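Protocol step 4 of 5: obtain the predicted structure for the target chain.
Materials: sequence only (see below). No template structures provided, no constraints applied. The aim of this step is simply to have a reference model before the mutagenesis design in step 5. Sequence pasted as it appears in the construct record:
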Amino acid sequence: MGNILEGRSLQIGQDQIAIVEHMELLGIPFALQQRIRDQSFLETANETLKAADGASILYQQYSLLIIRTCIASKLTRFIETTKFSPILLSQFDQLLKQKILTLVRADQDTLKEIISLLIKLS
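Step 4 output (structure tokens):
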């Protein structure tokens, strides 16, 4: 067995392992504190929104595909494996919906199939 040392580390044999507040595996936080999980979601969501902004400037015709890929690869895995505040997902959905609608220059009630790209509705 190991011993927990005063310096917030675990000693097993000759090895010392630092005890940390949380861990990340493939970008997914493992933490007991809700604050850490919420902060990690906000950071991932902000990265996705930045990618959407960049895509709309550089690659207008492929920007919806890039947005969808960012969501599928990062946020979907995050949502499936981590508990965080549901209000954050709702706020992100609204921001992304506005970005997509601005991108395609459509009214809110005209392109339901594009709006369905959002995490909330998929």
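Step 4 remarks: The beta strands are 3-5, 9-12, 15-18, 23-25, 28-30. The chain has one domain: 22-115.
Proceed to step 5.
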